[in-house]
What does this fold into?
Amino acid sequence: MKAELEAWSLSRQIAREAPPAKFVKATIDDMPQAEALANAVFGGVNTIPLDRRIERLQKNPDIDYLLKREDQIVGYFSLVPLRSATIDDHDRGRWDNGTLLQSW
It folds into this structure.
């Protein structure tokens, strides 16, 4: 328990000393760093390849958002618009998330 408390205390101190993070819309220039973060977090499993990320961002610039601390991406999320039929197919088990990532 003491080790957990010390780790928590240290993480709080680091967070207070770090520059504030900003929430921004992603650009094509951000995509290599976003892909690297996704691969680091998810171990390269079911992550969207760089060329597909860029292609989708060019089609819809409102789908990717980043949390940046200075010039470093520390978090991100993607909003993918799906048709009702696609959501229904997923809910009925006709495909899984990996299949969606490959086709999206």
